[in-house]
Amino acid sequence: MLQLFQKAKIYAQKTAIVSNGGSYTYQQLLFASQQLATLLLNDNKDLDEKRIAFLVEPGFDYVKVQWGIWQAGGIAVPLCTTHPLPSLQYVIEDTEASAIVVSPSFREVLQGYAEDKAIRFIVLEPENDHKPADLPEIDKSRRAMILYTSGTTNLPKGVVTTHTNLEAQISTLVAAWGWTSADHTLCILPLHHVHGIINVVSCALWSGAVCEFLPSFSAEKVFGLFAAGRLNVFMAVPTIYFKLIAHFESLDEGEQQQLTAAMKKFRLMVSGSAALPVSVMEKWETISGHRLLERYGMTEIGMAISNPYVGERKAGFIGLPLPGVNIRLADEANIELEDTSVPGEIQVKGANVFKDYWRKPEATTASFTSDGWFKTGDIAEVEHGYFKILGRRSVDIIKSGGYKISALEIEEVLRSHPAVSDCAVVGLPDEEWGEIVAAAIVGDSSLDTEELNPWLKARMPGYRVPRKYVSLSELPRNAMGKVTKNDVKKLFNT
Questions:
Q1: What are the φ and ψ backbone dihedral angles of 431, each rounded to 5 degrees?
Q2: Which domains are seen in the chain, by residue range?
Q3: Which of 133, 95, 165, 486 is nearest to 349 (CA)?
Q4: Range 456-469 burial, b when 16+ CB lie within 10 A, else e
Q5: Cβ(452)–Cβ(425) under 8 Å?
Q6: Sheet bearing 75-78, strands edge to edge
Q7: How many CB atoms lie within 10 A of CB 172?
Q8: Residue pLDDT, tens place only, 249-281
Q9: Per-residue pLDDT tens for 45-61?
Q10: 3-class SS at 229?
């Protein structure tokens, strides 16, 4: 039996999941997932890595389905609950899923498609309950899950992870972040993404902790759960912290004091998936008493670098390599940099690194160096052992007039302007300069972009100052709150 399920047996009588007004023990979760596995097997002994796509709301049913697929020997393919039908169809067809499992609320979304394509279609209803059958022994080297990259520039790629990969990703974080069976966390993150699946849900359930679910984000509901006093671990993305801060500032002083007192009792608060603005970190620390733990990871590697659980958490830095994860900075020729103060690409080795891209051998080969290091495409430098992300090689490193410019560093300065609430900096093609710096700004009515340049020139070299601006009410983002910079670039062409 896989280690996740072995651990669940240890905590059989403890509460595992709280969702939709119900509370479920580890024993109930194991039994329900075994029933689902039996249904999926349909009198076969083993799914033998057949792909099972599932569109299920966050909560008990989601975990039951995911665990059931694994226990039946299948590969779990989580579908995003907010994606349009063509995006769902792409994933189902690309993986050649043999079955689709849905919550009753998603029946109409995919039933017609499944029938047209003659794909087995399972709706999660009580009548589907089966007496658990004998389940196959699953070797850890088997493929376990396929998650899809965001696909901002090309068609999304399916990232294949084995059970060995997943166990490495989970166990590393459990040890590094001090997870125990006394923890109680809240999941508000999408469950087609490693941040939700691994960092929150799987780490909690590996540890015998309680994982509580909110079906969708609401600042009021999150703070309500904070005030109730059950939670002690919270993980989110920068945009969520931004919204929580805005809601907090709208409350009266008494409510603020009550919430601050409740938040100070937490042991850990984490931010990830996108760069955390220093201003957001500082504001959150003021209202919660917590310096957010910022970390770095990708779909392909899980988490690789993290600020320490115990020790200094540096604003603007992603931290130190996690135990068991090998990190190096390399130049454009994939040669390791001896001087790590020089910017280089983050490259990763370890059991946490994915197996391959689903049926894309050329893309897989191109993503690894000849000596087996995964090329993240993220550029970083190191100061006193701590890594600092400068941006994506493709979109955040702007080459202008012979300079290599970090878009993230410009964004950090822009956000410190009193009239700027958010921004995104991109490089636009230019015949003379190669690229020019451009900025999309979200600000209040008092903001005059013409006044920004002299203000910026007092704070950074002139070659970094944007030459073009566009004002927006909000930045384009994906499901995880990351700014989609290719969409930002398009705004300058309209």
A1: -60, -40
A2: 3-138 (3.40.50.980), 397-491 (3.30.300.30)
A3: 165
A4: beeeeeeebbbeeb
A5: no
A6: 120-123, 99-102, 51-55, 75-78, 143-148, 158-162, 356-357
A7: 23
A8: 999 999 999 999 999 999 999 998 777 888 889
A9: 999 999 999 999 999 99
A10: coil
